[in-house]
């Protein structure tokens, strides 16, 4: 049984309040959304697009940090390129999203266990 299942069982079977139950449902929803994003990234065209956008962000940041001859217009264009690429990239998330969510779930599970044991 994974940590989210354990948390669900503790919260729903031990009289926790509605807010705690909503939090568990939120974790489930977020994990499902992450699974969909990860599935999308497993498809080669989407992965290539994701990699392209990451490359665009890296290249723009490199130019901004190393080219002192950029005029204000070109700098603004690069910042817009970074912003747009980051918005698209955020739609697909990244691995650290899953790690941080799993840490949140683990922390909530430990807190719920402590509350039941008390």
Sum this structure up briefly.
The chain has 118 residues and is mostly helical. The protein contains five helices and no strands. Helix 2 (18-41) runs antiparallel to helix 5 (95-117) and helix 3 (44-66) packs antiparallel against helix 4.
Helix/strand layout:
Elements: H1 3-13, H2 18-41, H3 44-66, H4 72-92, H5 95-117
Helix pairs in contact: 1-2, 1-5, 2-5, 3-4
How is this structure best described in words?
It contains five helices and no strands. It is 86% helix and 0% strand. It has 118 residues and is mainly α.
The percent range for helix content is over 70%
Order of helices and strands: HHHHH
- Beta percentage is under 5%
- Quaternary state, please? single chain
Class from helix and strand fractions: mainly alpha
Enumerate the spans where pLDDT stays under 50 for 5 or more consecutive residues.
none
Shape: elongated
Number of strands: 0
> Mean pLDDT score, rounded?
90
Task: Count every helix, treating DSSP H or I runs of 4 or more residues as helices.
Answer: 5
Characterize the biggest β-sheet: none
Radius of gyration: 21 Å
CA-CA gap between termini: 23 Å
